[in-house]
Amino acid sequence: MLPVALERRTVVAAGHAERWRVVSALDGVVAEIAPDQLDRGAWTGYLVGVIRALGRFDITLKGAEMAIASSVPTGAGLSSSAALTVSVARALTSLAGRKVPPEVLADVAYRAEHDEVGVACGRMDQTVSALARPGHAVLFETGSGAVTHLPFAGKIWVFETGVSHRLTGGQLNQRRQECEVALRLCGEQGVTQTHLCDIPIEDLPRLTRAVPVPWGLRLRHVVSETHRTHQAADAILARDMVGLGRLLVEGHESLRHDYQSSCAEADLLVASAVRLGALGARLTGAGWGGAVLALLPPEREARIVAEVQEVFRQAYGRMPPVWSTRAGGGVRSEK
């Protein structure tokens, strides 16, 4: 996987207290939370998840007061939950007087979201939120967890579909289960790898013939996407934005057809952006809504943005929010 951190931020201001209280700039409501009460349907469940996950590392507090504000859109496939959990983990470890490396913060945030809240997520979002460097993309090897920072000075345009997704819903969890079945079926064909992403691209034709639908489709997406990710890393190092754009489009087609996690709004944004001159575009995030990212030629970006918005408006009667970002940095403390 090859994410970048957004220049947008999630900020957590925290102080010592005898109980747990939190307020969000989103609604201004002060809420009390308890580590022994986790509501998976509420956003505060992510905070409780972090508190519980920190306990596994023997980092505990009697309580804290937290004020949270964020410019990261929620439900847009832009890792707002990872930004929240990593930020809260950093704030609470600082309150506890513990210096924790970013790799541990990413692990805490993953455990909070995956183990406690019940999202069948991977570790990419938490990893980039914790370890990203300004002006760099992060090559994240999902099988080994290895991280490589790649210089990336390009501008990324974000088109929000306006279709919100819930990661705790059944679709993402179902895809993860289907990938597990696909790996088991590959094992019956002599595959010894323990992760789909580690299967060589050369083995894909044989395996997709042997593994039935829908599991063969999920297999093809994961293996081909891993291969595309390494090609994209090479394109970034070579400053080949045309090649990178082509890989984005191929990735979207795989999401649309093989992983079946796109939506009509995203498909329209990608198709119209490419038709109108974008170097490439694709859905980002877990899917079933969220946002489309695009690479645009600098000399034509304003025109392309306006024309894509108009195509979308004609189809859906509303203008999609559009903004740009460059590769930002990961979590940091400010006192």
Mean pLDDT: 93
Distance between the termini: 33 Å
β-strand amount: 15-25%
Q: What summary fits the major beta sheet?
A: 4 strands, mixed
Question: So what's the CATH class of the largest domain?
Answer: Alpha Beta
Count the strands?
Answer: 10
CATH-derived topology of the largest domain:
Alpha-Beta Plaits
Parts with pLDDT < 50 across at least 5 consecutive residues: none
Q: How much is the radius of gyration in Å?
A: 20 Å
Q: What order do the SSEs take from the amino end to the carboxyl end, as H and E?
A: EEEHEHHHEEEHHHHHEEHE
Outline, from the CA principal axes? globular
How many distinct folded domains?
2
The helicity comes to 40-55%
How many separate helices?
Answer: 10
The CATH level-2 architecture of the largest domain is identified as 2-Layer Sandwich
* Biggest sheet: strand arrangement: 1-4-2-3
Structural class: alpha+beta
CATH homolog superfamily of the largest domain: GHMP kinase, C-terminal domain
Quick gist of this model?
The chain is built from ten helices and ten strands. The protein is an alpha+beta fold and 335 residues long.
What topology does this entry show?
Layout: E1 10-16, E2 20-24, E3 30-32, H1 44-55, E4 64-70, H2 80-95, H3 102-117, H4 124-131, E5 136-140, E6 147-151, E7 156-160, H5 170-187, H6 204-210, H7 215-237, H8 241-259, H9 264-275, E8 280-284, E9 291-295, H10 301-316, E10 322-325
Parallel strand pairs: 2-4
Antiparallel strand pairs: 1-4, 2-3, 5-6, 7-9, 7-10, 8-9
